Each structure stands twice: as structure tokens, then as C-alpha cells.
Amino acid sequence: MTNQVTLIEHPLIQHKLTLMRQKETSTAKFRKLLEEVSMLLAYEVTRDLPLEKVSIETPFATMDAPMLSGKKVVLISIMRAGQGILDGMLRLIPSARVGHIGLYRDPRTLSPVEYYFKVPSGVDQREMLVVDPMLATGNSAIAAVYRLKETQPQSIKFVCLLAAPEGIASFHAEHPDVPIFTAAIDDKLDEHGYILPGLGDAGDRMFGTQ
Ligand code: URA
Q1: Number of domains present in the structure of the chain
Q2: Which one of 55, 93, 104, 170 has the fewest CB atoms closer than 10 angstroms to its CB?
Q3: What domain range is 184 assigned to?
Q4: Any domain includes 55
């Protein structure tokens, strides 16, 4: 699997994303919408999780019924904006393990600088979903995935809300083996590395900072 990009075009996701883009959408509403969209994204990106049959007893009979097999998924939030997607996904996958990676973008060079890294054990037997709402320049995502590959996860998927074509190209130039799942691919980046038309600064809109 190389350079795979999956555009998740579910109507509910597209509708909610449009509400999130609107500048008059409040912080509370933005946060709620991000949580809802993230639940829908989680539904889509976990489609191929392996199942195994286990023997259970219903009130009337025994049966072999499907359950998720293997170790729990691990969700990795790229701080701080990844937190919004993480919260939504955890509502759907409450037993997922969680890791965090903290990177900030140097405003001059736009390069990522790591300030926090904590990942659960046993990731070699877990599917890893790396989440960040915005794939803009791709610099943070590229650095995060390089760092996470050091923990040797069983597999990695990158999940975002919005991606810029430049970010997708840069990311896949470095990580062709990591599929990208996104709800939209926007036009381009501006000179500050923000996505156009985009939705603004996801962290600021989610947390009411600025
Ligand atoms: N990060 C954001 O929050 N927004 C962008 O448009 C780009 C990066």
C-alpha cells in the first residue's frame, strides 16, 4: 500500500465540516462538531479491523459471534489540536490505548520541535491511528510518524479532517507506507502554512485561544 489517500465523503461529515469552517461558529459548537465528525471518521477508518469468532451465550442459545481480535487499537494525538479528534474517537472506541506526541511549529522555519512523547507499551501488536485535524505543510505529521515508527507499531494510519495537497505530497514523499484518511482536500497553503480555504487555526478554534 503506497501513497494511499482516502477521502471520506459521508454526507454527515461534509455537512458538519462546513459548519466548522464558518467563522461565526462558536468555540463550543466547533468542539462539539469536531467530536461528532471524529466519531464518524473513527467508524470509517476502523472498517478493516480484524474480527474473530468467539463462543457466547445469548438468553436463548449459544453461538459463535464476531468480536475484534488482537490487541486494542492505539490512538496517538498530535498535541494540541489532535485532542479534539482523540476525544471523539474515544467515544466510539473507549478501550483504545492512547499516546501523545507534542510538537510545535517554529513560526520562522515552520519546522516541528518535539516537546512531549508518551506512547503505551506493546504497540508492536497494535494498529496505530495518528490523529491531527490539519495536514498543512505536513512537517509535524512527518516528524511525528518518524518518531512513532521507532516504537515499531504493527501498522499506522494518519487521520485528519482537512489536508492541503502540499501536505499530502510531502507526507507521502517521506511515508509512502502510511495511508492518509481525510474528510476534505483543500486548495492550497498560504504563506504562513495555513490551509486555504480551511477553517482557521484548529487549536485556537477548539480551545478559544488566540
Ligand atoms: N494548522 C491549523 O490549525 N490550521 C491550518 O490551516 C494549518 C495548520
Answers
A1: 1
A2: 55
A3: 5-48+71-207
A4: no
**207 in contact with ligand 1, CB cutoff 6 A:** no
Task: Indicate whether 66 belongs to any domain.
Answer: no
Q: Hey, what amino acid is at 81?
A: A
C-alpha dist (Å) from residue 45 to 13, 93, 194, 198, 205: 13, 12, 25, 22, 25
- Does the beta carbon of 104 lie inside 6 Å of ligand 1? no
Q: How far is CA 14 from CA 7, 57, 145, 207, in A?
A: 11, 40, 27, 22
Grid coordinates 507521502 are at which residue? 172
Residue nearest to atom 3 of ligand 1 (CA): 201
Residues 171/157, Cβ–Cβ less than 8 Å = no
108, part of any domain: yes
Q: How far apart are CA 112 and CA 143, in angstroms?
A: 7
Instruction: CATH number of the domain at 21, please.
Output: 3.40.50.2020
Name the residue among 12, 67, 41 with its Cα closest to residue 157: 41
pLDDT in tens, the chain (210 residues): 789 999 999 999 999 999 999 999 999 999 999 999 999 999 999 999 999 999 999 999 999 999 999 888 999 999 989 999 999 999 999 999 999 999 887 888 877 789 999 999 999 999 999 999 999 999 999 999 999 999 999 999 999 999 999 999 999 999 999 999 999 999 999 999 999 999 999 999 999 998
Q: Residue of the nearest CA to atom 7 in ligand 1?
A: 194
Is 200 a member of any domain? yes
